[in-house]
Design a protein that fits this description.
Belongs to the short-chain dehydrogenases/reductases (SDR) family. It is an enzyme of class 1 (oxidoreductase). Its EC number is 1.1.1.53. The chain is an alpha/beta fold. Helix 1 packs across helix 7, helix 3 runs parallel beside helix 4 and helix 4 runs parallel beside helix 5. The termini are far apart. It contains seven helices and seven strands; from the N terminus they run βαβαβαβαβαβααβ. It has one domain: Rossmann fold, CATH 3.40.50. Strand 1, helix 1 and strand 2 form a beta-alpha-beta unit.
C-alpha cells in the first residue's frame, strides 16, 4: 500500500542514517522526495540511489537564508510541499558536568532552531500553495520523553522539539496542518551503535532488556514517519509517538561493558 502516493515530501538530514531511511520509505510509499543535508556529497549519492522520485539540495537547517533557498526550490520544481520531516539533528554524549556552553548552543541551533525554521517555512509554503492539508513530522527522541544520563544537552533539545510540536499543532491546526513528534528509541544507526562517543555502551545488554528484545532498525522509523505523513493519520496531531521497542514502558537504562548489574 502506497501511503504517500501523489504527495511531495521534504526530509532534512537525509544523507544517511534515519533521514536516509525516512526518505527511502517515503519514495517506496509513492512520494516525490526532496532530500536535504549539509553533507552534500553523501546527499547526492543517497538521492541517486532512490531513483527518479528523489531529488536533493544542500541545507543547513540552522540558517534562515538556506531555508528560503530550499523554499524556492520547492516552488520551482515541485509546486507545493505536502509533508515536512524535520529529522536533522546531532547528539553530544556528555554528562552535565562535562558539557560546555558551546555544546548546548550547538545542539539548540541544529535540533531546535532547525525544527523551528522548518515549521515556519512549511507554514509559508502551505499558505502560498492554498493547500487544504499538510503534515509535519518532527523527529524528537525518547530522550525528549524521559531523562537519562550521558547526553544532557541532547535531552534538553529534544524536549524542546516536543514543545515546538505541541504549540505548532495548536497554531497550525486551523490551517489544516498536522504536527507530530516521532520519538525514536534505541536504533541501530550511526548516531548510536556506530558513534564513537558510545563505544563503551553495552548495546546488547540494553537490547535484551527491551520488551521486544532488539534494537530498532532505521526502516522502523521510516515507516512510522511515512504513516504520520499520510492521510491514514489524518486525525492525529500534537502527539509524541515513541518507536522504541517498549523502552518507555520500562525503567531500564544502558550499561557500560563489564559493569555490575
Amino acid at each position: 500500500m502506497q501511503l504517500l502516493a501523489g504527495k511531495t515530501v521534504l526530509v532534512t538530514g537525509a544523507a544517511r542514517g534515519l533521514g536516509a531511511a525516512i526518505a527511502d520509505a517515503c519514495v517506496r510509499h509513492g512520494a516525490r522526495v526532496l532530500l536535504t543535508d549539509v553533507l552534500s556529497e553523501e546527499l547526492a549519492q543517497t538521492a541517486a540511489g532512490l531513483g527518479k522520485s528523489a531529488a536533493c539540495h544542500p541545507l543547513d537547517v540552522a540558517d534562515p537564508a538556506a531555508w528560503a533557498e530550499v523554499a524556492g526550490v520547492v516552488r520551482r520544481d515541485f509546486g507545493r510541499l505536502d509533508v515536512l520531516v524535520n529529522n536533522a539533528g546531532l547528539i553530544v554524549g556528555k554528562t552535565l558536568a562535562q558539557s560546555s556552553h558551546a555544546d548546548l548552543e550547538r545542539g539548540f541551533r541544529v535540533n531546535v532552531m532547525g525544527t523551528f525554521l522548518g515549521l515556519q517555512t512549511f507554514a509559508e509554503l502551505h499558505r502560498d500553495s492554498g493547500a487544504r492539508s499538510g503534515s509535519v513530522v518532527n523527529v524528537a527522541s525518547t530522550r525528549g520523553l524521559i531523562g537519562g544520563a550521558g547526553a544532557t544537552t541532547y535531552s534538553a533539545t529534544k524536549f524542546g522539539v516536543r514543545g515546538l510540536t505541541k504549540s505548532a499543532a495548536v497554531e497550525l491546526g486551523p490551517l489544516g496542518i498536522r504536527v507530530n513528534a516521532l520519538c525514536p528509541g534505541p536504533i541501530d544507526s550511526g548516531m548510536s551503535v556506530g558513534d564513537p562517543q558510545f563505544a563503551q555502551a553495552d548495546w546488547g545488554a540494553y537490547a535484551a532488556k527491551l520488551p521486544l528484545g532488539r534494537l530498532g532498525r532505521p526502516a522502523d522509523i521510516g515507516e512510522a514517519a511515512a504513516w504520520l505523513g499520510s492521510d491514514l493519520s489524518a486525525f492525529v496531531t500534537g502527539v509524541d509517538l515513541p518507536v522504541d521497542g517498549g523502552l518507555t514502558a520500562t525503567s531500564y537504562g544502558i550499561e557500560l561493558k563489564g559493569s555490575e548489574p
